[in-house]
């Protein structure tokens, strides 16, 4: 027992910590506004958004006890008994004084602890203590609720409950004073939760649908609390779940009887009676929508949009192909409505008069001879919604019933799902498209984990979803297959998707249990003419235009019908059949033996289109024709593959000749090389003008792809080069074999050809030959002539390419300003053509040579962000590694090079090996540097690629310099000049070495003075000193 001098106890404990404690003096309120003391969870003292640590159990107990009476004097007796409840110190005054002193040193200035005559006072406002603030807010919320201000009550109570961070007074709950207060605060918290739920139920908050889950959790912890049971019953009834509400009452009655031998209270019994009578004002929401068994994925925005349209239109029809998720979207939308929603499943109906009877049955009405009249009588004054699900096979009857009900029941709304519109006045269509790839993959992963809880998504998931058109039903059927096969096996077996994707839910309609059944259902609803049109449309692997459809025999009426019935999608003037439906159509063509005929007709159209487009691709009409052919790319590729696989040499050669320019301008050069290799390898008469044009395109793309030597080995040299195309082929073959003078001689008679495009291409080929021979000045003259020719005919792509080459040549020669101006024009053209992204890495490399590092770095970063082609990313990584090396960040350089280590194509591998050699030199690993640079030299010699050999030579000069051979280094740097035909003085490595080797200019001039053959021999023979 405490026997100290101070006996005055200003606050008898336990007191009501309530509103009276929350009225600090005005001065205190002003002075202490910056401190917060939080006890609803682990103790925290916060000032100026900074936490202040309070050490020691007794210090925390003292602070908490004072905070609970913030602004009021707490007697010394009370404080001692609170802090030392079991063993009071021998000198309690001194012990308390010492503890107060320690606490004062801990607290911020804004929380002053005063010694008063009667005890101690913590000078902070009451609302600075979260427990006191909570009580005030909870009390105000309760008063607002009693006054019918539900919105205000909800805000106050939500704020109050938000102050809790965990168990109240958890630091000192073992002390008697704290245990009593904590229990009381917990009870107040539960009451505030109940008040908040009451406010939500009484108002119109959208959170009402979530209350059932919250209430069930609270009841699990407080099974005998009657108010919670009452709120749960009201929440269930307000959600239209009357049966569950009645069951909840019965569950509580049984619990009370078993535990207390009592009955529910009077108010709850009255509530039960009103529910049974159906006269409770909050139980008006009714319907028959069932709770979903699986998550709703990827359609949240669609659900909101359908709900919005449904508010403005009394008839909304969700249209889309089978398996796209129309039913799920409709029921998910219905679940958000504040009116009764009735789902009517029309799939089992087979006769027109079955449709109104199905609605009668769904609403639980008594069957009658005139079902429609019965529905009108029941729904005439009801604000309700009906979902007519699966109307396509009874579309006329569904349309008739919808028109009748909407016309005679002004408060009725109908949400229909169908593979084709109902086609009545007032109908608002909402096309339901397949999912995007990301939500489709999420759906697959969720359904996969349902059958394999350990499933971890891989890159195969995206590929599977794309192959299945991102159709939700197909994805769900595929995910189920993971019960018996790996994701990798599933991905490889989708070519036979109709046999693979079976075994859907046993409770699903028969038409949704297999993928074949889904498509067959739609196919069987077509007329004979529509079915024939759908089969012809299946021959198109990609989207197609109306002109193509007409060519293969699909009429405009048939196109319209197939779009209406969701067999075709229509957007931006083009039609597209989902791959799943297309494969079914191809299967039908195969069964009937009409597949080859359909593909022949398809190929005929695209051959005619390609030959019509080809002249325009070389002139001022290039842009619109590039855009048109780009849209037909998939169709063109399939037409060519059909001709090649079928041995149709004539069609294959004609397509190759017509599309060679398109593939060169608008495609991946390695891919174009592969296609054209197949074309020129077709048997047939040689040479013809068409075959020569295809061969020229083949060799040109192989040049850009770095595989000219390989391609040249598969091509015979034309017997005579008396035509420009044959001369162009001969020149590229000469380039591949190093016979540059022979190539130049072949081109000479045609350089004044009257056609500017032909002159431009021949001059471009000539510039390649001069470049390979190391004759920079001649090469610049040739590429200037090419620029002039392409300007004259309006061919933007070749002009852009030539300007890039000219810019590189000017920069190499030291004319950096003019080179950058030329490069800017080339970039402008490439952006106009849409080929800029694919050329950015190369453009950045040119800018590095010009010393324009900032722009180059920006372009390379954009490549990593936007590029998809592996070779573009590899080039960007190698260049970024060079820039990091120039900055002295060798670790970052190594990181970038690591991404390019698997480069396989010769030009990319040579660049990688050279970059790795430069980096090894910078790190002092001279042995590795010599190995990498030797590899790069070998590849560049084989190509042959003089600029690349010059790049390797600079690396070898750097290595020689680092190894203490400055004279030899300067000579090799001069050899690099000779190989490229210019100093390339803007390149950072060249600049650095030139500055370092100023005293060895004679050695540089000796290397620089070599002719190209001697320079090549010199660099090939150089071996770094070991």
From TrEMBL:
Protein's name according to its UniProt entry: Putative ATPase
Domain OmpR/PhoB-type: from-to ranges: 27-124
SUPFAM superfamilies to which the protein is assigned, alphabetical: C-terminal effector domain of the bipartite response regulators (SSF46894), P-loop containing nucleoside triphosphate hydrolases (SSF52540), TPR-like (SSF48452)
DNA-binding region: 27-124
Database matches in PROSITE patterns: OMPR_PHOB
UniProt KW keywords: DNA-binding
BP GO annotations: phosphorelay signal transduction system; regulation of DNA-templated transcription
GO MF: DNA binding
Source organism per UniProt: Nocardia mexicana
Similarity comment: Belongs to the AfsR/DnrI/RedD regulatory family.
Upper classification of the organism: Bacteria, Bacillati, Actinomycetota, Actinomycetes, Mycobacteriales
């Amino acid at each position: 027992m405490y026997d100290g001098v101070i006996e005055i106890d200003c606050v008898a404990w336990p007191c009501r910590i309530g509103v009276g404690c929350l009225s600090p003096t005005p001065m205190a309120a002003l002075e202490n506004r910056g401190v917060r003391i939080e006890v609803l969870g682990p103790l925290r003292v916060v000032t100026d958004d900074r936490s202040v640590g309070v050490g020691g159990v007794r210090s925390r107990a003292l602070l908490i006890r004072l905070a609970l009476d913030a602004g009021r004097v707490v007697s010394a007796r009370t404080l001692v008994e609170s802090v030392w409840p079991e063993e009071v110190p021998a000198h309690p005054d001194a012990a308390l004084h010492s503890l107060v002193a320690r606490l004062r040193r801990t607290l911020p200035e804004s929380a002053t602890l005063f010694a008063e005559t009667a005890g101690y006072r913590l000078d902070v406002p009451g609302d600075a203590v979260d427990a006191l603030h909570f009580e005030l807010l909870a009390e105000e919320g309760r008063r607002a609720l009693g006054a019918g201000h539900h919105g205000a009550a909800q805000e106050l109570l939500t704020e109050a409950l938000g102050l809790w961070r965990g168990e109240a007074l958890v630091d000192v709950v073992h002390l008697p004073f704290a245990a009593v207060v904590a229990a009381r605060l917990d009870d107040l918290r539960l009451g505030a939760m109940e008040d908040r739920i009451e406010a939500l139920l009484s108002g119109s908050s959208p959170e009402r649908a979530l209350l059932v889950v919250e209430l069930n959790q609270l009841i699990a912890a407080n099974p005998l609390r009657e108010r919670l049971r009452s709120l749960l019953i009201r929440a269930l009834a307000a959600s239209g779940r009357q049966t569950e509400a009645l069951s909840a009452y019965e569950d509580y009655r049984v619990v009370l009887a078993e535990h207390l031998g009592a009955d529910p209270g009077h108010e709850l019994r009255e509530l039960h009676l009103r529910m049974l009578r159906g006269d409770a004002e909050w139980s008006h929401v009714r319907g028959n929508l069932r709770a979903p068994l699986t998550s709703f994925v990827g359609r949240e925005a669609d659900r909101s949009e359908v709900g919005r349209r449904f508010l403005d239109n009394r008839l909304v029809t969700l249209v889309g192909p089978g398996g796209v998720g129309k039913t799920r979207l409709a029921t998910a939308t219905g679940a958000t409505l504040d009116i009764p929603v009735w789902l009517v499943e029309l799939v089992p109906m087979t006769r027109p008069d079955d449709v109104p009877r199905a609605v009668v049955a769904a609403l639980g009405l008594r069957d009658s001879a005139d079902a429609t009249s019965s529905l009108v009588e029941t729904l005439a004054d009801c604000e309700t919604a009906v979902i007519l699900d699966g109307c396509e096979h009874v579309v006329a009857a569904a349309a008739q019933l919808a028109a009748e009900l909407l016309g005679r029941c002004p408060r009725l709304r109908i949400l229909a799902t169908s593979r084709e519109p109902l086609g009545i006045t007032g109908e608002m269509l909402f096309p339901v498209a397949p999912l995007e790839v990301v939500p489709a993959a999420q759906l697959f992963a969720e359904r996969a984990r349902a059958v394999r809880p350990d499933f971890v998504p891989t890159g195969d998931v995206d590929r599977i979803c794309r192959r299945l058109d991102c159709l939700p039903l197909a994805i769900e059927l595929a995910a189920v297959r993971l019960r018996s096969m790996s994701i990798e096996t599933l991905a490889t077996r989708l070519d036979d998707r109709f046999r693979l994707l079976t075994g859907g839910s046993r409770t699903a309609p028969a038409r949704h249990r297999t993928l074949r059944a889904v498509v067959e259902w739609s196919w069987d609803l077509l007329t004979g003419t529509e079915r024939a049109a759908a089969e012809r449309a299946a021959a198109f692997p990609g989207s197609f235009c109306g002109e193509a459809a007409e060519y293969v025999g699909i009429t405009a009426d048939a196109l319209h019908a197939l779009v209406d019935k969701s067999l075709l999608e229509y957007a931006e003037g083009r039609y597209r059949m989902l791959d799943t439906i297309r494969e079914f159509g191809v299967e039908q063509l195969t069964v009937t033996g009409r597949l080859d005929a359909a593909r022949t007709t398809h190929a005929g159209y695209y051959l005619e289109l390609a030959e019509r487009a080809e002249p325009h691709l070389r002139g001022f009409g290039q842009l619109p024709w590039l855009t048109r052919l780009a849209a037909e790319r998939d169709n063109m590729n399939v037409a060519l593959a059909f001709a090649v696989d079928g041995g149709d040499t004539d069609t294959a050669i004609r397509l190759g000749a017509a599309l060679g320019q398109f593939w060169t301008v608008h495609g991946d050069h390695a891919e174009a090389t592969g296609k054209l290799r197949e074309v020129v390898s077709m048997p047939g008469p040689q040479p013809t003008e068409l075959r020569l044009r295809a061969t020229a395109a083949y060799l040109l793309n192989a040049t850009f792809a770095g595989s000219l030597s390989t391609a040249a080995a598969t091509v015979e040299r034309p017997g005579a080069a008396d035509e420009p195309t044959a001369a162009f082929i001969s020149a590229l073959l000469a380039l591949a074999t190093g016979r540059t003078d022979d190539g130049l001689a072949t081109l000479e008679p045609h350089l004044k050809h009257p056609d500017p495009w032909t002159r431009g291409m021949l001059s471009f080929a000539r510039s390649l030959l001069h470049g390979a021979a190391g004759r920079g000045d001649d090469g610049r003259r040739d590429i200037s002539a090419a620029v002039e020719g392409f300007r004259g005919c309006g061919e933007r792509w070749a002009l852009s390419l030539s300007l890039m080459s000219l810019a590189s040549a000017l920069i190499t020669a030291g004319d950096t300003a003019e080179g950058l101006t030329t490069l800017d024009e080339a970039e402008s053209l490439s952006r106009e053509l849409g080929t800029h992204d694919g050329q950015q890495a190369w453009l950045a490399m040119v800018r590095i040579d010009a010393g324009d590092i900032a722009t180059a770095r920006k372009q390379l970063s954009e490549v990593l962000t936007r590029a998809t082609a592996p070779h573009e990313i590899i080039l960007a990584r190698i260049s970024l590694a060079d820039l990091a090396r120039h900055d002295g960040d060798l670790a970052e350089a190594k990181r970038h090079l690591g991404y390019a280590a698997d480069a396989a194509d010769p030009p990319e591998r040579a660049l990688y090996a050279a970059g790795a050699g430069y980096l090894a030199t910078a790190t002092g690993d001279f042995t590795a540097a010599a190995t990498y640079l030797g590899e790069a030299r070998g590849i560049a010699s084989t190509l042959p690629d003089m600029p690349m050999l010059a790049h390797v030579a600079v690396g070898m000069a750097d290595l020689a310099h680092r190894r203490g051979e400055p004279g030899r280094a300067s000579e090799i740097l001069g050899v690099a000049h000779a190989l490229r035909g210019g100093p390339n003085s803007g390149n950072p490595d060249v600049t650095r070495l030139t500055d370092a080797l100023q005293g060895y200019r004679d050695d540089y001039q000796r290397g620089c003075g070599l002719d190209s053959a001697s320079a090549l021999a010199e660099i090939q023979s150089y071996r770094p000193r070991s």
